[in-house]
Design goal:
The chain is mainly α. The chain contains 9 helices and no strands. Helix 6 runs parallel beside helix 8.
């Protein structure tokens, strides 16, 4: 990822922010963290605020598109992803229980982040409500990772010099590990809940 961003900066520097916007339209935070760290080095002219703005724009419009796809084509699409059934069921439970909190937080939930806007659209959350909450969530997410990468790069440079990249990518892998653990735990709980509901005897009066 570092090599890719450096290549864009060296060969097409003026395209950095459109590149970040396009990348975050479909992907997550790794490119934002790496670019924030590069900004801290001073080798390239990178504005952290423009980085955050580009990331926010890509993430916001990407999730708006996925939301509208979910509203119009969601149910047929879900049938094509049977392996995601458990995650989808858990996401439906969360968005029905607390839609605002789910919209504000799903970018931070590994394993659910990519399907969450579809689920919100299928669940019928009003368009204006989702637009406002999605904008707030995208702004918080983008600024956290852009400035987080910048500040992390400054501190790691002071402590470790060029070795900081090993620590940075180790940190990213740890984050992914925690996300995978959380997703697996949620999957297990959902499976246990489904099993309990299946095994429970019918209530009186049912045949």
């Amino acid at each position: 990822m570092e090599e890719l961003v450096v290549h864009v900066l060296k060969e097409y520097g003026f395209l950095l922010y459109p590149f970040i916007t396009a990348w975050t339209f479909v992907e997550g935070e790794t490119v934002v963290i790496v670019t924030g760290v590069l900004a801290s080095e001073g080798r390239f002219k990178i504005s952290v605020e423009l980085l955050a703005l580009a990331a926010m724009t890509g993430s916001f419009f990407g999730d708006q598109l996925y939301y509208y796809i979910g509203r119009k084509y969601g149910a047929p699409l879900l049938k094509r992803w049977p392996k995601l059934t458990t995650k989808v069921e858990w996401a439906f439970e969360e968005v029905n229980r607390a839609p605002a909190m789910f919209i504000l937080s799903f970018r931070w939930i590994y394993g659910v982040r990519n399907i969450a806007p579809f689920i919100v659209g299928i669940a019928g959350v009003p368009r204006v409500k989702y637009l406002v909450l999605n904008f707030i969530a995208a702004a918080i997410w983008a600024h956290c990772f852009a400035w987080g990468g910048y500040l992390m790069g400054r501190k790691l440079e002071d402590w470790l010099g060029e070795s900081k990249w090993f620590v940075l990518f180790g940190f990213i892998f740890v984050m992914i590990g925690f996300g995978v653990f959380g997703a697996l735990r949620s999957k297990r709980k959902s499976a246990e809940l489904s099993g309990a509901q299946t095994a429970s005897p019918p209530s009186e009066g049912q045949t």
